[in-house]
Amino acid sequence: MDAAQSASAPQPVETQTPEAVEQSPEVERDQLQTAVTDLQDFIQSVRRDINFNLDEDSGRVVVNVTEAASGDVIRQLPSEEALRLSENLSEIRSLLFEAKA
């Protein structure tokens, strides 16, 4: 095999075995706790709240990102337009089924 072939040959990927992962639960727990703390600190620093609600009309889960101090909605997923579109499509579907019957 020449240098060009060896450079393009696939290299084996090293993966951790379940035993290797289970050997360090304290280290992983400490890392996980640090990550959670960092995320909480970041969310508090940008002064945003995340709320999960159930839209009464569609029955879908809606996620709102709000400004903590004022309560103003910064972003909503899905958007109001998407929720209304879903509601309108449901109405059209029910009208079509009634017309067929």
TrEMBL record:
Ranges of biased composition (kind: Polar residues): 1-18
InterPro entries: FlaG, FlaG-like_sf
Keywords for this protein: Cell projection, Cilium, Flagellum
Entry keyword annotation includes Lyase: no
Protein name per the record: Flagellar protein FlaG
Superkingdom of the source species: Bacteria
Region (Disordered): 1-29
Pfam annotation, one family: FlaG
